[in-house]
Each structure stands twice: as C-alpha cells, then as structure tokens.
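Feature request, filed as a ticket because there's no other form

It would be nice if the structure record came with a short human-readable summary line next to the tokens. Right now we just get the raw output. Example of a typical job, pasted below so the devs can see what we mean:
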Amino acid sequence: MKLFAGTESSWSLRALLCMEIAGIPPELRIFDLSNEESRRELKHLSPTGRVPVLRDGDVVVYDSLSITEYLNESKPGLLYSAEAALRAEERSLCAELHSGFAEVRRQMPFVASGETAPVVLSAEAEAEIERIGIIFATGRGGFYRGETPGAVDAFYSVMAYRLASYGVHFTGQAGHYQNALTEWPLFRRSLSRLCPKKMSGGCCHRR
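Raw output as currently delivered:
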C-alpha cells in the first residue's frame, strides 16, 4: 500500500501510525507542504489535494479516519477491539478527535519540533483540554486498551504531544497515559519520518 503524507501533517501522522499498528509497512511518499510545486503535484494524486491519501492498487482512500477504517477491514482486531462494545467506544473516541477540539487545534497549532510560543487559551479551549484529560484518565494502561496499541492511541498520541509541547501536562492516570504516548517509540519514529529535520529544529511547515 502507498501512503501519500505531508510534512508537519498531524493527519498524516495518524494514518502512518495506524498502518504500522496494523502491520502494513507503507510505501511512503512525503510531500513538503511548504513547497508550492510539491502541493501542485499532490493535487494530481489526491482527490482533495490534501493528505493523507492511501492507494491500494486501484483503491484510493483519503481522510485519516476513512483510512483507519479501511485498514481495520484489512486487518481486523488490530486497530479496533474485536468485542463490539469496546470497538464502538474506540470508534467514538477516534471520531471525536477527528471532528472535535477545534479551539485546541486553532489556538495550539501542531508543531513537530515541539518548539512553541506561549499562548493564552480561551475558556472554550480550556474546556476541550478538560475533556481530553477525562479521556486520557480512562486509559487502561500504557495504551488505551491495555498492553497493545490501537487506533485510539494513534489518534490521541498526536494530541498528547501537541498539548505537551504547549506545556499542558496532565496528572494521575491521565498524565501516565499522556507520557506513555509521547514517549511511545513508534510515535517518535513516525514523527521523525514525516519531519526528518525535527531533531535539528526548524522543521518544515505548520498544519
């Protein structure tokens, strides 16, 4: 499978993590989203002109949540739990992150280097962070469902890193889960793949 991804793209990072969890090493092509020529080329490969896009033969899947669902159909039980009730919970959490937390995204842009400026958050953003803390506190171990990673971890690891980069650190079980996600070796490797300049600072392009 081919994955078209973008530099500094939190959406691409989620898709890449899900592919790795599903045991499907992607043929990865990374587009520099800060480069106009690169963006023009992407428009010929992506139905929306955006990333991520998954190509599996003649099948084209775009949007990180749709990609996750497609991968789960290919490798059932790896991204979502086999038990229906748990699977429904996990899908709901992924959908909540995918479509929600708009103020956190707007006021705390994702920066792969983790080098951010202090921000004054609105009450709406603070409320969203409180909700994220509640979700993190329900984690069942180092990963959301215990000892093995899944789609929830792929989606929320990016949020955990985003919040930590702005100095938001939870306590208790929520903090344990946040720390586990930000230090997760697969997350760190995937982050570096999408933004190879991250370790030396000054990377790429905000998204």
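Something like this underneath would help us a lot:
The radius of gyration is 16 Å.
The chain has two domains: 2-76, 84-191.
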